[in-house]
Specification:
The protein is an alpha/beta fold. The chain contains six helices and twelve strands. The strands form three sheets. Strands 1, 4, 5, 6, 7, 8, 9 and 10 form an eight-stranded mixed β-sheet that branches. A two-stranded antiparallel ribbon has the order 2-3. Strands 11-12 form a two-stranded antiparallel ribbon. The longest helix has 19 residues, at 25-43. Bound molecules: 1-O-pyrophosphono-5-O-phosphono-alpha-D-ribofuranose (PRP). The site of 1-O-pyrophosphono-5-O-phosphono-alpha-D-ribofuranose has 22 residues, from β5, β8, α4 and α6.
């Protein structure tokens, strides 16, 4: 499984703002928005393009556009904060939604919502979720996509823990990960260390 770490200075400065416990919700959401733009930009490097003719004010030339724009799938709640930035860079894209909440005792995901096309064969998917901790939530989401025929999944996240990356690797699902950082570990509550806390709570408040 390919893992791309976007260690660009601008990405790392936004990540640092998100890690800082003093950052308020509005600034956290702004940093996530900007960082997502950078992650999408890097993820899109490998997207195939097609040419088409355009005419400038001076002369005809070849233009480019994405040959197959991806379906965007934010994982609620925390992935919602990445949706607008991703759609801004990929305005041709459609969007699906998956709602998952991690059980505080078992740490396994509980699905409470899904709104996805029934057929995803031939459609690349960009999954948006800031955190890969145990990897359970992303594995669940990517399995939903693979069950619909998807064979090209890119997971965009802000932070990933080694255990989560290993779980996604073991899943055998057709995916790659684009992240701003690989953190060192999980604590007893399965929070990423050093991490940034709970990305859902920090954007939208505690439940
Ligand atoms: C967080 C996060 C991921 C998941 C990561 O969501 O946004 O979806 O946990 O943990 P995992 O890799 O161990 O599955 P959470 O369940 O807290 O829900 P929220 O987005 O509504 O806050």
């Amino acid at each position: 499984m390919d893992v791309l770490v976007v260690d660009h200075p601008l990405a790392q400065s936004r990540l640092t703002a998100m890690r800082d416990a003093r950052t308020d919700s509005a600034s956290f959401r702004a940093a996530l928005h900007e960082l997502t733009t950078m992650l999408v930009y890097e993820a899109a490097r490998s997207f195939p393009v097609e040419t088409y003719p355009v005419t400038t004010p001076v002369a005809p030339t070849d233009g480019f556009r994405l040959a197959n724009p991806p379906l965007l799938v934010p994982v609620l709640r925390a992935g919602l904060g990445m949706a607008d930035a991703a759609l801004g860079l990929l305005p041709e894209s459609s969007m699906g939604f998956v709602g998952l909440a991690r059980d505080e005792v078992t740490f396994e995901p509980r699905a409470y919502m899904e709104s996805l096309p029934t057929e995803l064969a031939g459609i690349p998917v960009l999954v948006l979720d800031p955190m890969v901790a145990t990897g359970g939530s992303l594995e669940h989401c990517c399995r939903l996509l693979a069950d619909r025929g998807c064979t090209d999944i890119t997971v965009l996240c802000v932070l990933a823990a080694p255990a989560g990356i290993e779980r996604l690797e073991r899943s055998g699902l057709p995916l790659r990960v684009v992240t701003a950082a690989l953190d060192t570990a999980l604590n007893d509550h399965r929070f990423i260390v050093p991490g940034l806390g709970d990305a859902g709570d920090r954007q939208f408040g505690g439940m």
